[in-house]
Specification:
- This protein is mainly alpha-helical.
- It has one domain: Arp2/3 complex 21 kDa subunit ARPC3, CATH 1.10.1760.20.
- The chain is about 70% helix and about 5% strand.
- The protein has helices spanning about 10-35, 40-50, 65-85, 100-110, 110-130, 135-160, 165-190, 195-225; strands at about 35-40, 60, 90, 95.
- The strands form two sheets. It has a two-stranded antiparallel ribbon with strand order 1-2. A two-stranded antiparallel sheet has the order 3-4.
- Strand 3 (about 90) and strand 4 form a beta hairpin.
- Helix 4 (about 100-110) packs across helix 6, helix 5 runs antiparallel to helix 6 (about 135-160) and helix 6 packs antiparallel against helix 7.
- The protein starts with 9 loop residues before the first helix and ends in a 6-residue tail after the last helix.
- About 40% of the residues are buried.
């Protein structure tokens, strides 16, 4: 799923990198607003007086809930990073590992989930050569935006009629398939491999990987959010 360097056209790589930066900037802004709050004017006045009338108007401060949210984001990022180190065989020498997009989005929300998965992808690319630097934007779009953010709304839509475990499993499976589809389109349009060939290969393998993704995600959600009905 991680696209290495050399598989994408430079224009494709740079365009997706710009798109990833813009989307992540928006997600980060949403997260920052969620974990901070504007200090009331009466509190600002009191603090200003105690500091010699230093103006703090318009300042946003980290809330207690925000601190807990950031700690939870760090925990989820660590779990995804650790679990992704374990590969499972699929067929013909190929292997897969947890993507973790739905796991992050369900626990944290879609904006924070996309940010967490992007951080994991950046660390993997910089320090473990898992995915190319030039292809980083594509990998973020495929796995963090489509696989996490996009699939979250599949999960939300399904919750109207189905229980938690079914919703998580279906959303997790689709997160892998949709990310693989996007990856195939990017590589095919870059002319590296024929679109029909890369599409058939990617979707066939990742349909199997998606089953494992679904099972692992359901298990992790039950462990880290045990109060949810199954």
């Amino acid at each position: 799923m991680h696209i290495p360097d050399g598989f994408l056209d430079p224009k494709m790589s740079s365009g997706l990198l710009g798109a990833a930066a813009a989307i992540l900037g928006y997600c980060l802004a949403k997260v920052m607003r969620a974990v901070t709050a504007v200090v009331p004017q009466r509190v600002l006045a009191a603090v200003g007086n105690s500091l010699g009338n230093v103006s703090m108007a318009g300042r946003r401060v980290l809330t207690k809930v925000g601190e807990e949210k950031l700690l939870q984001m760090g925990t989820v990022a660590s779990i995804i990073f650790a679990v992704q180190m374990f590969n499972f065989p699929v067929n013909s020498g190929t292997s897969g590992h947890l993507v973790g997009g739905v796991f992050a989005a369900v626990l944290l929300g879609p904006f924070a989930g996309a940010v967490v998965l992007s951080v994991v992808l950046v660390v993997q690319s910089l320090f473990f050569a898992d995915g190319g630097l030039m292809a980083l934007g594509a990998n973020i779009i495929n796995m963090a935006v489509i696989g996490s953010f996009g699939s979250y709304y599949i999960y939300v839509g399904l919750k109207i009629q189905f229980n938690e475990a079914i919703c998580v499993a279906i959303a997790a499976w689709f997160s892998v398939i949709l990310a693989a589809f996007a990856c195939a389109v990017e590589i095919g349009l870059s002319g590296t491999i024929g679109l029909r060939d890369v599409f058939a290969a990617m979707v066939k393998v990742h349909a199997v990987i998606g089953i494992a993704e679904a099972a692992i995600t359901v298990f992790l959600i039950r462990v880290f959010r045990p109060g949810e009905p199954s």
